[in-house]
Amino acid sequence: MSHSEEKILAAVEAVVFDIDGTLCEYERSTATLLPLAFDRAGVEPFFSSQEYVERYETFLEDSDDVDDHREACFTDIAQEKGRDPETARAVARAYAAERDHTRIGWLDGAQELLDNLTGEYRLAAVTNGGPGMQSQKLETLGIDCFETVVHAGYDTAAKPDPEPFETALSAVNTDPEQAIYVGNSLQADVVGAHNAGISAAWIANGETTDPTPTPEYVLESPGDLLDMLCVSSQ
Question: How many CB atoms within 10 Å of residue 29?
Fold first, then answer.
C-alpha cells in the first residue's frame, strides 16, 4: 500500500456500504430465478437475466417498489421484442412469487468486518434496493449497526448520483475526505462515490480485469478492508 493510500485510510471516520453483492448475496441468483419464473408463468423464455440487469437503473427512480420496478423492466423488454406486455407482467408476478428476500447469506468476511468496525467508525449504507426488500435482508442478517440506510432511487436520486452519498454523510456528520465507500459496482458505486468526493473500495468478487473507473482500493472480499483499516491504525 502506498503512503498516500495509508494517509487516506488513516483519516477515515465513516465507512459507507452498498448492500447487495457487497455484504450479502441471494442464495438463488437472478440467472437461476428467471427460468423458474418463466416456467411458473407458463411462458417460453424470451429474454435473459443480463437483459434484465442492463435495464435495472433505467427504471429505478420511476418505480414505487421492487415489484413495480421489475415489471417495468420486463414489459420494456417485451415491447422491444414485439411481445405482449401482459405476458411480461405475468412473468414478473411469477418472479416475485419465487423471490424470497430472506434467503440470503453473508459474503466472505462481511459479518466479521461489520462486527469489528461497529463502535470504531460511523457506519451507514447506500443501496439502490427498495426499502421493503432491503429491510428484510438487514433483519435476516441481524445488521443493526448502520446509523442510516439511504435507499437511492427511493429516498433520493439513484446511484451514481452524488445525492444519496451526500445524504448518508450528512446523517453521520462526516466530510467526504473522512469517509470511504465500499461497493461491488464500478458504475453505481465507484462512480457515485467519486461524484460525491468519497474514496472508493471496490469489491472485485472474482473479476480479474483492470477496473474502470479506477477505485482507490480493490478488495477481493469485504474482509480485506478490515486488514487495511487495521494496518492504517497501527
Answer: 10
Contact between residue 176 and residue 162 where contact means Cβ atoms under 8 Å apart: no
**Residue 131 · residue 107 · CB < 8 Å:** no
Structure confidence at residue 234 as a pLDDT band (50, 70, 90): very low
pLDDT digits 0-9 by tens, 176-187: 999 999 999 999
Reported as type and span, the H/E element at residue 4 is helix 3-10
Alpha-carbon distance of 232 to 225, in angstroms, equals 11
Confirm if 123 and 15 have CB atoms less than 8 A apart: yes
DSSP single-letter state for residue 178: G
Cα(212)–Cα(25) distance, integer angstroms: 23
Spatial distance between the Cα atoms of 194 and 161, rounded to a whole number of angstroms: 10
Residue 172 has phi, psi (to 5 degrees) of -100, 10
Contact 98, 40 (CB under 8 A): yes
From CA 40, how far away is CA 43, in angstroms rounded? 8
Verdict on whether the full-model pTM lies above 0.85: yes
What one-character-per-residue DSSP string does 97-153 give? HH--TT-EEEPTTHHHHHHHHBTTBEEEEEESS-HHHHHHHHHHHT----S-EEEBT
